[in-house]
Amino acid sequence: MFHTDGMSCSSVLSTRCKTNMMRQRFAATLKALFIDRAEQQYVERGDYALSCDEGKHIISAKEWDTMVKIGTVLHMSIILRRIKPINHGKGCPRCH
Asked: 0.70 cut: is pTM over it?
């Protein structure tokens, strides 16, 4: 077993597994909370961002274990993606 900075590889892997499991449980909880809501499709596709500090810092997967603790207030933003390219000069996109 290898040791780095007083922490064994098995401890590091265990921590990563726990962090990944927490993120997966959180995602599953969000999906359950948004069933039969207008936002359900976005949540199911993972088209959302989680942030803290009143939305000033988006939390990446790598930061999850250091940023998200019991009592952390998270802000959720839905990510809207353009399905069709912008209709330049052809008039109303709904009509054309």
From this structure: no
